[in-house]
Batch of 3 targets.
Target 1
Amino acid sequence: MSDIFIGTCGWTDPALLRSGWYPPGHRTPENRLRHYATRFPLVEADSPYYALPTARTTTLWADRTPPGFRFDVKAFSLLTGHPTRPSALPADLRGHPRDETLRTEVWTRYAAALAPLREAGRLGTLLFQYPPSLVPGPEAESFIRTARERAHDWPFAVEFRNPAWWETDRTASFLRDLGATAVATDTREGPRQAPVTTPHLALVRFHGRSPHWLTGTKEERFRHTYTERELAEWLPRIRSLSTRTKELHLLFNNCCADAAAEAARTMRDLLA
């Protein structure tokens, strides 16, 4: 049986901070992360998707969490083909063409910034979430393969937002060949399982079951309070996954108020 890690996608979402989930007095980044780490052993760091992190920041993340804690870290938007604001890039790169040379330089800086997490044993995986616009085909596979070759010695997980990727058996063999973890999801369509593609990690992201998934504002897309029954649907799948990997990560992304933290707690109780 694998070690099961449960957590939320982010720990500083404004809605979570307003919800009262953090005890009074926990107003600093240090206090919040230290408190979070007493409740869950895993968190997804999503801020690196929006801007490149710094080594100082990730060193502090490692220092403020206990041994055995895991950070799954989202890849910077440019690395996954998402629209990227010029202001999100380092100043010296903003005028550069959006090509593989730029992505290689961005990857180099991204990897250097995350090195303290890996060296401290806190890194779970890098999460490359690809947009709906990335449709299956040779060009898309080449794009992903190039990203994997840059990150050849890093843990690497892939989430596809275009469902067509899972309408062919080729996707599973493609990810196995890359040594990449296939990410399963839960959305308004319900559970979408992904095959186990690496022996060391399986990952499930629970996005909520909003009817506005992929169409509304961020708040509308992720506004959902999971019921115990909805989470219990996953128990047989989770038990099956846990027999085939070293670690299983369950992350809750229904980030309105404290809904993700409550869903993570409920899932932990169900599995207990």
Target 2
Amino acid sequence: MSAPLLSVRGVHTYYGNIRALEGVDIEVHRGEIVALIGSNGAGKSTLMMTICGNPRARSGEIIFDGQNITNLPTHEIARLHIAQSPEGRRIFPRMSVLENLQMGSVVAGDAHFEEDLERVFTLFPRLKERIGQRGGTLSGGEQQMLAIARALMSRPRLLLLDEPSLGLAPLIVKQIFDAIRALNEREGLTVFIVEQNAYHALKLAHRGYVMVNGKITLSGPSKDLLTREEVRAAYLEGA
């Protein structure tokens, strides 16, 4: 198998003296959707933010396409076309939908702006209807669509999705996950998704990792993790 697009090797991350990640190893290959599941507070979002350089890994290394990015500033990591749709959406509430998307396109430049705009509007037609509306007045589901669309405007080689289903109605969750699957199948987009909703994440992903208290405890093909008794008992009851 070819070298992974993203490789996290032995990463330890701290908040002050509190260790949040302990020796984390993960790999994401080109064209894959990889899910990281775990309970609230397991360290999933910390790993996502560590990949983006804030907070920094205290030890270990993060390799993207053969380049060590462990100590790069966040803006330089973004220039490598690693895009994040963060937990809690964090759109610009006073800016319109269009202005939010323009902010997302800064890394990619203007050459393909109209083409990329049409691409995200095809994925999320609701955003086209709301193009002049302030981000802060959108529904939760529309804000999540906007956060993902803003990330896509940078033409990412790796899309990082942090809790995209959080607080959303099941129908909206399905629309968002269908859009992610379509991007992967049609364009080969590589996706690393962090999710509390283990069932949806593992149904979407090719491979998965389970995190408990800042450590990776299980990994493997998603279909195998879905049938593991310890995964079903901890994360899938009632799914």
Target 3
Amino acid sequence: MAPPNDMFNDDDYPAYTMGRAAEMVGASQDFLRRLDEAKLFTPFRSSGGHRRYSRYQLRLAARAREMVDQGTALEAACRIIILEDQLEEALRQNREYESRHRSETE
């Protein structure tokens, strides 16, 4: 886990309880459980076994809620979000590769 000073800026730090996460996303706790079942993300677990969510996971949950509210099936919304996330990561890696390659050839 990140040192205390880094936790404030760590998007992956599991800072939010299920109740708080549901409130922030504007969804029910059951909706968050369904996102876990659909494998959009796996919430962290406290030592007592309670689900804890990161800011990154809350952004994904908010996107899923938005898509479901617009009529997209939950499973389809989760798959779309996963693919969008994978594409974003691939593009980021490609930019890094191109940047390194450019500096090596200069």
